[in-house]
Structure prediction request, 529 residues.
Amino acid sequence: MRELRVLIIEDSELDSQLMLQALQRAEFEPAWQRVEDASGLRAALASGKWEAVLSDYIMPRFSGLDALLLTRELSEEIPFIFVTGAINEETAVECLKRGADDYVLKDNLTRLGPAMKQALERLDDRRERRRLEEHIRQSQKLEAIGTLASGVAHDFHNLLTVIFGSVEQLAGMLSNQSEARQSLEMIREAAQQARSVTLSLLTFSRTAVTDKAPVDLAQVAQDSLRLLRRLLPASIEISTRVPPKPVWILADATQLQQILMNLAVNARDAMPSGGALNITVRHEAVTPRDVLSAVVTRGRGLGVLTVEDTGTGMTEEVRARIFEPFFTTKPRGQGTGLGMSVIHGIVTAHHGRIEVESEPGHGTRVSVWLPCCEAPKGAVAPASQRRCRAGSGELVLVIEDTEYVRCIMASTLRSAGYQVLQAGDGNDGMAAFERHHDQVRLVLLDLDLPGKDGLTCLSEIRRGGSEVPVIVITGSVDVDPEKHFSGHEYLLRKPFQMSDFLELVARVLAQAPARERIESERRNSSSGR
Prediction:
């Protein structure tokens, strides 16, 4: 027997009992209420507990059509079936047009059960379709955000590349004791945070490129402290507990920092009057629930990052929805609802898992488990401390349409001892290459160029037989090196710091003579056969 909460609009108690018996014969177990007029119907519908409505068409104090219209005014989807002694075809059609689901004659109540089942099935079908339509709309919304994010990121990455480059140039002009260096450092950190914002959008829209390398999770937590102390008010006390030994994980350090930033912002909002934020890093053995991650870790265990606050906490209902895109408990205009979904996307991309523990009034603890990896072979110096081999007058062709990006790259190269040719579009770039191809030792090629796009330029360079190394520069996430590159190309993604840029230039040029020798030996060997 299926329970059915049914509201009956009928002036005859006997007829109501006959309807109930017909439903019982159809294996329904009705819980019911009978009303006879508009006020009774309105009051009953206001309770919102009914699954179906049965109504006579002709009653002394109430019209069946008025009952239908009032029901539809208060509920668009509840099944409504007329059970009447007589109704002509024209009236029946009109009732169906106005929103009735069916009609059954009182002298044929055996049809009431099947009619009710069909009406309920149609309601279920409408609700599945609506869920599907909502899912499609949500997918389209995410796709639109991804498209917008990619476009915004492209422009931002150009601007940030210039900011990074200008900061490094100015820092090189100042002494280490200069107070201005502190201001420059703040500009650099602000630019890094701006880069994190675009990465958040790209991560959320699943278009971000992850630059994974062995990272010490404990060091990331320590390095984030300075940013966190600037981000959080003084009323929030921050403490960290990290192990003395590194906890190496294969990860994108910027995205790990994004996790900490997002969690810190959530904690700040949950502690408007102040409180404590505790950040813990530890190494943990693999548990049975981490069997999938264990394949990745190869027995190296898991790095665990825990962020705990003493804030307001969450109800179970809120906690169950926190990873939903656009879900937020903050007032309109004060939250996007993307923070936790971004974190979830990052953790998933790193083959990890995330757990949230929270109770109202008892704060929140978020724990992230990430697979550990082998320690790197050698420590890499920070970008700001690396010293690259100076240029020896090598001619570098820079093809970049954004003027301020092109200028900062050219200025940086000249300061490092290189000669530079510049072009602002694909056509001019290829013309310059044809004029100077014997002298050009390296091409820096942006992909998003007017005239001829970057890939077309690259194809023309290779079709002409040149094996000059090309550094392909892009802010896009759609470039597949395996698909587009032949082996003499290198990828540099915007935004980048000039120290990283110069290091790549020096490394590529250092490899070029060895590559030319190998290619020459290969050609000679082939001709000898």
About this structure: The first strand starts at residue 2 and ends at 9. The chain is about 50% helix and 20% strand. The mean pLDDT is 83. The CA atoms of residues 4 and 321 lie 30 Å apart.
